[in-house]
Amino acid sequence: MTKWSQLGAIICLGAIPAALVASTRPAQSANPGDETKRGNQVLLEAANAAGGEKLSSVATLAIDESGKIMSSQGDTTLAVKWMVAYPDRSHGEVDFGGQKVVQVCDGASAWLQLPQGTRDTTPVISEFKRGISLFGGGWGVYEQVLAGKINGQFIGEADIDGKKTLGVSIDGSFGPVKLYFDPITHLLSAARFQSMGAQGTSDNEQRWSDYRTVDGRVFAFSTVTYRDGSKFFESTIQNVQLNPKLDESLFAKPGPAVNN
């Protein structure tokens, strides 16, 4: 896989997310409605732990992120300046091993701006939308939960990195995702999902840690992603700015697109 094809497979994951398909102990209930009630309770506890109604006032984010991607060819450093507009728009200026690229989702379409032209990635726009929803440990999901637009199904307990978590499955515009929460802090510990890339479908597990308070809201500053059982990506956040004014031109699609 070339650097650019690797980038195309990676960046369109939004937060740059793979997977440890876990042994989840299923919830036991004679009434399926109990799983919905418990799942929504866990989601609401998580949303409140991360800031509650204060999250509803966050319309945009500016984030500086750096990290590295692991592959059989070696590690590649990566740094991104993200601009996010909830619920489903993002603009990322990426330095990928010294190469520059821009990745954008305008809510209806998605693309990569490469040195050789623009590559349409709309067929995998759900990858972008998932990343936007999970930034910082699920802020986009929580906004939808607080607005009553996402419901969850409790799926039981699971061990994540040797720690007990509570599992909830959700389904949104980004597709199905299983979320796992710390039963003590109520914050998001991990997410499990499938994603599409240049090499086909992969199983992913993304983990969040190093939660810090940002203007009364709790944001995860560290992310590690496993793909098909191997560590694939790790990153740290250097800075988070809430509600910056965004230039609409950031989401204007250039042309023409390239096909490879």
Structural write-up:
- The protein is α+β, with helices and mostly antiparallel strands and 260 residues long.
- Helices cover 21% and strands 48% of the residues.
- It contains four helices and 14 strands.
- A 14-stranded mixed β-sheet has the order 7-8-9-10-11-12-13-1-2-3-4-5-6-14.
Summarize this structure as a short list of keywords or feature phrases.
260 residues, alpha+beta, outer membrane lipoprotein receptor (LolB), chain A, 14-stranded mixed sheet, globular
Outline the fold blueprint.
Layout: H1 3-11, H2 32-50, H3 53-56, E1 60-71, E2 74-85, E3 89-96, E4 99-105, E5 110-114, E6 117-120, H4 125-146, E7 153-160, E8 163-172, E9 175-181, E10 188-197, E11 200-214, E12 217-227, E13 230-242, E14 257-258
Parallel strand pairs: 6-14
Antiparallel strand pairs: 1-2, 1-13, 2-3, 3-4, 4-5, 5-6, 7-8, 8-9, 9-10, 10-11, 11-12, 12-13
